[in-house]
Amino acid sequence: MEAAFFDLDKTVIARATLVAFSTPLRRKGMITRRLMARAVWAQIVATQRGVDEEKLREYREQALRVTKGWDRQKLVDLITESLDEVVEPIVYREALDLMDEHRAAGRRIYLVSASPEEIVTPLGRYLGVDATLATQPQVDAEGRYTGQVKVYNYGVHKVAAIEEEARTWSIDLDASYAYSDSITDLPMLEAVGHPVVVNPDKSLLKVAAERSWEIRVFEHPESLRGSLPRPTKRQALVGGGTAAAVAVAGTVWAAGRRLR
């Protein structure tokens, strides 16, 4: 069996997940317009210059500190209410077409993301992928975030998750495909026989050019409304809370960070 592994932010969807969810959070009074603007600016800088491992580690620790003690169910409700609004208009048509091509070829389709499973899993349902691999947070007995994660699905950890799936499903990684925009996903791209960079950051573009990897530009976001099966409300409730928590944390972090 062969597979196709897709990163999420700026590869399948046109905006970073954390920035995309900042609008409904602002409307609910959880963040300010000023914080949202700074988060967007931080994303622009990251897109132009790339994001290194140290910066992502700092980001993760800041996010975990902010979300500790938050009630999961309240955030689940917010994400459930805003999932259609946030996700549907920003999926790249080019990504959907590629997924269709891989399905027609009999390949297993994955979303592989460092974003929390609370948002990656529902989005995977919208796209009709076979499985999702995402960050898994910890929640205590009272339904509150502990500030820790069970699995941080980033960098080499993405490769570990992919290799586990390969063993489970007898996937030939040398014959499989991977798509990403970020240099942080270089290990995932190197793990397959057909790496493809999509809307690459500066560092990944350089690597792709040096190694003669395929480079694609996705530039046509398209609403999913009416074109793909929609999850039921109960399905949507399976995920959602941590995405909002991390979105708020990311916005707060972006606001306080001095960008050079």
Structural category:
alpha/beta
| Biggest sheet character | 7 strands, mixed
Q: Tell me the helix content.
A: 40-55%
What's the count of strands? 9
Poorly predicted runs: 228-260
Report the sheet-strand fraction. Answer: 15-25%
CATH-level-4 superfamily name: HAD superfamily/HAD-like
Which strand order does the major sheet show?
5-4-3-1-6-7-8
Q: How many structurally independent domains?
A: 1
User: What is the CATH architecture annotation?
Assistant: 3-Layer(aba) Sandwich
CATH topology: Rossmann fold
Mean pLDDT: 77
Distance between the terminal alpha carbons, to the nearest Å? 46 Å
Q: Please give the count of helices.
A: 12
Class in CATH? Alpha Beta
Principal-axes geometry comes out as: globular
Oligomer kind: single chain
Overview of the structural elements:
The chain starts with a strand and ends with a helix. Strand 4 (131-139) and strand 5 (145-151) form a beta hairpin. With 260 residues, it is of the alpha/beta class. It is built from twelve helices and nine strands. It has a single domain, classed as HAD superfamily/HAD-like (Rossmann fold). Helix 3 (33-49) crosses helix 12, helix 4 packs across helix 12 and helix 5 (72-87) packs across helix 12 (241-256).
